[in-house]
Amino acid sequence: MESGGSKTMRRLLAVPYGCARKGRAFQRLLLLVTVLASIFLASHQTQAEEAERDIFSELLTDKTVKTTLDGMLATLPSAQCAPGQACAPASPEEIATPPVSVEQARGAIRAGFISGLAEWCGLDWQGRVFQPLIDSYRNVDRLEPRIVTMLTLLHGYGQGQMVESMKTQQCSAAQRDSIDSLVSSVGDAR
């Protein structure tokens, strides 16, 4: 059974943030995610953390993160900022100067990539990556619900990208072990 989050991500992936003109960039990013994820998964386990850092830094350039952040702001009204309450559209001020920094956005997308790998291998991505991340945003960073929603959308985007890029491959036992270690290191870092 597909989770609500997965359905939402698949819908968002169908037309990346409703920006048809960015379709080629999306396809290039998806191809790059696939290639780099394959390289990461082929890495020896002792090199996993270093490989992960290199892969994600290549994928998540400032330009890519800013484009993704702009796209997220365009989809904000489709999200809920409070139970049963849709988010208001991004204000002109939020569009000009997003309330989420490039570094915050990069971290959320990176966590989404890791959640996507965990989901692909059947690991508990919700309990081990997503929920601790959201709890940290709410309780440690004390971010406003609207900003938490923005970061949640960015996480979901990263997760959806990774799930889409890996869907034609099977997660091996060695890959699962490597990803399990990566997921554990993410939990330790937060």
Give an account of the 3D structure.
The structure is a single chain. The chain has helices at residues 4-14, 23-42, 48-59, 62-75, 92-96, 102-120, 125-140, 145-166, 173-189, and strands at residues 80-82, 85-86. It is mainly alpha-helical and 190 residues long. It is globular, with a radius of gyration of 16 Å. It is 72% helix and 3% strand. Residues 1-22 and 42-46 have low confidence and may be disordered.
List keywords for this structure.
mainly alpha, two-stranded antiparallel sheet, 190 residues, 2 strands, 9 helices
The total count of helices amounts to 9
Query: Tell me about the biggest sheet?
Result: 2 strands, antiparallel
**What integer value in Å does the Rg equal?**
16 Å
Structural class: mainly alpha
* Helix content bin: over 70%
Ends: how far apart? Answer: 29 Å
User: What would the principal axes of the Cα set say about the shape?
Assistant: globular
Strand percentage: under 5%
Task: Briefly summarize what is shown.
The chain is 72% helix and 3% strand.
Question: What secondary-structure arrangement, pairings included, does this model have?
Answer:
Blueprint lengths: L3 H11 L8 H20 L5 H12 L2 H14 L4 E3 L2 E2 L5 H5 L5 H19 L4 H16 L4 H22 L6 H17 L1
Antiparallel strand pairs: 1-2
Helix pairs in contact: 1-8, 2-3, 2-8, 4-6, 4-8, 6-7, 6-8, 6-9, 7-8, 7-9
